[in-house]
Amino acid sequence: TNLNVYLLLISLLSFLFHCEHSLAFSLKNCTILYSENPNNVSVTCAKRHLTAIPDDIPGNAVSLNLSSNDLSNISRMYLRGLSKLEALYVKNNWILQIDDGTFADVVELKVLDLGENLLTALTKNMFQGLSKLETLSLNSNNISFISPVVFQPLVIIRSVDLSNNFLHQIKAVDYIFKLPTLQHLIITYNTFSSFQSDDLHVNTSNLLTLSLDSVKKFSITRDIFPHLQSLDLRGWSKDIEWEVSNKTFLRSLTRLHMSETSLSFDVYRAILQTAYSLQENSKIHTIKENMLQSCSNLVELNLSFNNIKSMADNALQSMTQLRSLILQNNELSELPVAVQGLTTLEVYDLSTNDISELYCPYFWNLTSLTILDLSHNQISYIFDCVFQNLNNLKILNLENNQIMSFIDTFKDKLQTLEFLNLRNIDIMNFIHGDFRSLSSLQYLCIDLDECDSVDEGGFEGLDNLQILYLLGDNYFYDHFSGLSNLSTLILNVVQSQSHNSSEQRERPFSNLQRLKKLHIKVHRGYYDISKDVLSGLTSLEYLITEAYFMGSLYPDTFKHTPQLKHLRISYSELSVLTSDVFLPIPNLIILDLSNNKLRSLDFLAEAKLSALRWLNVSDNELFVISETVIQSLPGLTYLDLSANLLTCECSNYGLIQWIQGSKQTQVVNAHQYTCAFPVSQRGKKFLDFGFDSCWIDAALLCFLFSSSLVMLTLLASFIYHFLRSHLTYAYYLFLAFLYDNKRRKKGIPHSYDAFVSYNVHDEAWVCGELLPELEGQQGWRLCLHHRDFEPGKPIVENITDAIYSSRKTICVISPNYLQSEWCSKEIQMARYGYQLFVLTCNDIASFYTD
């Protein structure tokens, strides 16, 4: 019911400002949920299409959720090693069979949920070893047989749910009633024809609550339920025989639930007369004037979800102790007069009816009222005297009505009110001082999107307000004046507009020095955010924004929020961030940048976020995550990279290694990540990509190759410049050696008797004196440079041919010969010939001969 809006708001705030994040490690098909207690390791594998229990469940897990998968059976080997498991949820699978002894190793198990499966029988040793089990759910199976001894190992069981099965006789569950510690039993939606104490072989049951399906006969002739406090008879039909031979047999019964029933008036009366201690009656479809006359001890009456259009004026006259009346979801068009005299009433729920008018005297006698819910009606105006005398009212819900103004509605009244819900109303004018008298108000939800004018200081007087939910088109500095104790602000901006440059627009929160939690969501439009928009929020710890910081962030955006621990910026089209943005918030623990357009996380490398534990960057455009980024976050325990464009290349080799090897950080659903690039790998699993080629560091290879190439180029240049002729000489010397060997092997005769090696300056002496002597007188055939060398042929080849085509080599030594480079080479080559003769044609200095 809407009576719980107070608690629901707290839950909403908890949801907004706290993320479900994980403790450590990356599992293939499961996620480890966050817990402040490191020993409380909870693992969820729900909705993963699993056909078998994963083998990588941490051995220290205390809770395991395998619901909504495709499991067909459970055997002992699947649970071996989970000795600390306390809760196991396996509902909504296809389990047909559970082997005997399956749970023998999970001796610490306290909660077991096997609901919504296909089990047909509970066999003898199915629950062996579950001596600490307290809660067992077997609802929505096909169970038709239960072994008489199946529940014997459950020595401290407290709750069993066997609803929605195929049990035909109450004898089938006879053994359950014998369990001494059993307190709660649900056996609705079976096919029992009767429920009779004579069919139960038990003297006394310790049951506190019993939920029973419609039967043709309900008979208790023995005092077997002395402790029964609550009886659920929902869905019972009018063809029933009710027999309780002694009213004392149900002496402890205080709560009776009969929703969706079609019982006759006589049966209703018989039931109510039997339950004389009844304190709470739920959902009676039809009420007549004297129907509840015997229920003088009734404390809570729930008549919701019926078609009640009116109530008799004296229908509740006997209920002098009634504290709670729920009339939610009916067809009441006016306030029921029967309620006016209930001075003990504390909770009154009239939500979801057709009430259009609140008249003044109606609530005046309800002085004990603490909770009043009038939401989802047709109320358009509230007179200033309606809430008079409600001096104890703490919660007032007026959500979803047609109220247009609050002129003096709260003036000088409701000083104890702590919670006020004004969402989805049609208020046209928000006037200064409307809430001035609500000095105790701590929680306020209000919609101003239809408001034509908003007075400055509209919240004046709400000095104790701690949580404000505000929906509207804009917000300004003066709106929050007087809210010095506000700790949580939730802004839903329906249609944003660009701010003009002014103090109240550029620094709208400067009055909220104690604000710790701020949530801003923009539904339509675009804000031109000032760099000082967070000015004054020196105590802010949680900041959640959606479509607010569009496109980019100023480097000093968070300079005013040094205490920030939780930051979420999503749906903001951020593509580039710098490390300077995060330097003013070193205490950040949780960072959510999901649903943006980020292409790199390199900004985190220099952001100095050593305290960061939880990082969500899902639904971005990230390609590569560098090792530098990972190393810069030493405290990280949770990382979500889902729905990014990860590249399956060596650039992500470090990320792959880290995901698979980290014992501190869980990369949630990492085994489901797929490759986006290159095209040849698209769609394949990211962690399955073969990184064999990445074992050798590509950067090192490039360095070695380039260094070697540079050194080789320098060496070649050096040799070419300084030793070019020597290399040429060595080359031809080698050719000469080969040529000589070839001639010797073939036995080719010499063409000359001698090759004369001389300098050109000694040519006159050679031709004038040596040549006539050797060729003329001795008859030798000489080989001379100027006469016998082949024109156009390289000089070295000519010299080589001349030396090896002659029997002897005659070197004419002179100073010019010794200074000539080619002459020196000729004499060196001649040394490898057959005979070398040296002639000195004149005196040679000693340094030449050396």
Automatic annotation (TrEMBL):
Pfam families: LRR_14, LRR_8, TIR. Its main location: membrane. GO terms for biological process: inflammatory response; innate immune response; toll-like receptor signaling pathway. Residues 750-850 form the TIR domain. The keyword Repeat applies. Keywords: Glycoprotein, Immunity, Inflammatory response, Innate immunity, Leucine-rich repeat, Membrane, Receptor, Repeat, Signal, Transmembrane, Transmembrane helix. The chain crosses the membrane at residues 698-723. GO terms for molecular function: transmembrane signaling receptor activity. It is found in: Membrane. The keyword rRNA processing does not apply. It is a single-pass type I membrane protein. GO terms for cellular component: plasma membrane. Residues 1-24 form the signal peptide. PANTHER family: LOW QUALITY PROTEIN: TOLL-LIKE RECEPTOR 13-RELATED, TOLL-LIKE RECEPTOR. Belongs to the Toll-like receptor family. This is Toll-like receptor 13.
